[in-house]
Description:
By secondary structure, this protein is an alpha/beta fold. Helices cover about 35% and strands about 25% of the residues.
Amino acid sequence: MIKVAISGACGRMGQEVVRTIFNDPQTEAVSVIDIKHEGENIGEITGIKNLNLTVKKDLKSALEETKPDVLVDFTDPTNVYNNAKICLNSGVSPVIGTTGLKDEQLEELKKLAEEKHLGCLIAPNFATGAVLMMMFAKTASKFFDNAEIIEYHHNQKKDAPSGTAIKTAQMMSTEKENFANGNIAETELISGARGGNFDKNIHIHSIRMPGYVASQEVIFGSTGQTLKIRHDSIDRTCFMPGVLMAVKYIAENKKFIYGLENIF
């Protein structure tokens, strides 16, 4: 049985993680952490009658008390880095779904995980379809001269562009040196009109709108044709098979992994 703690347990994603861990026969929810609802029963919050866990506010003390094998973090870009360090220093392997980590922070977490001989898995997106979309985009990059990314999220998402868009662009950039072949010199009449220009001239456009969960479209072009690769997350339950896959993998493998595609 894999003992799992959930940080950000009272948020929309966190509650789905609690339900998923509770319902899987190979995992057990042993601790729930959130800055809100301290002292309340997570079973009542999530509607799970047979779950009786008190929401804790302090991550470090919660980990020391319950000694989980893995912590799943769906919190906030401003907290996730420190949460991950607390986990690793407490002997717990983190599975991180919160986006917004900087490159230098990823490198520090990799070093710390290696020093502690612990697993650490960070995934910009846990939806298996979204991961396949990124893998397909990487393959398509070999055959098209131009590409841009449009990502759509709900208007409560704090970081832009999304971690999924950045990860997609990183994967694509390994296949080609320039994704704006043939483009003329451009003048933006409104700053940012062409989106953010990532490495290798991959333009990323971020949409924030009520009604979306998470969607992304990668548009490829070459002479006489375009190709669109799109994934839509309609409900947060789509992320749960990937979360469960990551929890089970990282409990057994003491590796630092960035991207769910690396355990497919």
